Amino acid sequence: MLLHIARVILILLEVLVLFNLLIVVHELGHFLAARWRGLYIERFGVWFGKPLWKKTINGVQYSLGSLPFGGFVALPQLAPMDIIEGKADVDRAKLAPISALDKIIVAVAGPLFSLILALFFAGIVWVVGHPVGESDSTTIIGYVLPDSPAQKVGLQPGDKILEVDGKPVRRFLGMNDSVSWDVVRSEGDKIAVKFQRDGKVQTVWVEPYKAETRGWRRKSVRQLLILPAETAIIDKVEPNTPAAAAGLHPHDIVRGFDQTPIYNPVALLEYISQHPKDQLVLHVERGGERFDVPVKPTLLPTEGEMKPRIGIQWDTTGKMSIAHPNPIEQLYNSVASTLKTIGAVASPKSDVKLQHLSGPVGIGRIYYLLFQSERGWQLALWFSVILNVNLAILNMLPIPVLDGGHIVLAIIESVRRKPVNMRVLEVIQTSCAMLIIGYMLYVTFFDVQDLPFIKNRLDKLEPERASTTQKP
Questions:
Q1: Would you say residue 421 has pLDDT above 70?
Q2: In a shared domain, residues 181 and 144
């Protein structure tokens, strides 16, 4: 128990360090550019809240806050940011004016430093690699849910999907060229799915499934209710069960049963639930050799209920490989996925809305889940490449308060040949800051629902949705 608590604390610390690093490096870019261009720097803070430590050096107040979430640099000459950074201690009217070019350079420096950090992480990932699951390297269907849209049009396990909605696919899950994303991103009443079966290419039109959700939960997105092909590897054999009596071992691979190949472990679970009293013959591979194992299900405790099982637990990761994508490829894929997300949110016909994005709580949860895996630090570095690129691009959106907004205001100033009225600027900045803070609270409301102890309770209220979520 103590070891588990210690591991959880360690993972939380790793999440905090990495998450804060991304924000602080971004702000450091603004800070260094401001010093280079001679701007007045009032404060540079790591974390927010009441300062635990602060010290003024060469006219700049450095501080460490009590709330461990990111950081900031206060530049009164750039734009009024009182609502986020606190009220300025100086009269902005008495500060020397700065050029529009200086404002643009300082604004661009933050996203630039985020990209540099992304490139640094990408270089590490290139050397050490990152784990890749089978769903990232296959488009073969592993399982089709009963009565699903896919089953109704005749899609079967073993079919290799070639195109979705007219777009070629090369992986099952993920953002770029994937089955799941192209299903979610489609906008027509039906989706064209081109697939290959026994060497023959066919196309079917599938009407996507959307689960009904309550108003206070994230809206469901389009799904075909299919799972990717995944090797059925036994992770654990429970003692005193039919599987143990039959001689099954951890790391055994189940290739099929009763002369029927299986492409995903779920297929065997479904068969046993529908034939609880029937003996079946598993086709097992161990150490390169194949043999048959007869086994008969029995009632075993499962989540507080007695259900027919044979007593094995699957390795949920399946077969893993280590990929070493070069830094340029990683940055390109990250930029592409970010732009696709923005495009999806902006499209009025898309199922992807602002509520489907993640804020600090959602991002922290992803990092926590990544660090829990065996090669978590490699996955976390790989995800950090994506997140830094995301941070850079989103900050360049032409919205006041964001870096892109500062650039737009500086361009307007250069065209008008005079600064924007400070009072007008304060109203604009404050209004946009309130909107962004409101958006962050809105997204956090949905992110909190994904936390395990809350999600489990909510899913019990919506059993149908709980059984079909996260399926492409």
A1: yes
A2: yes
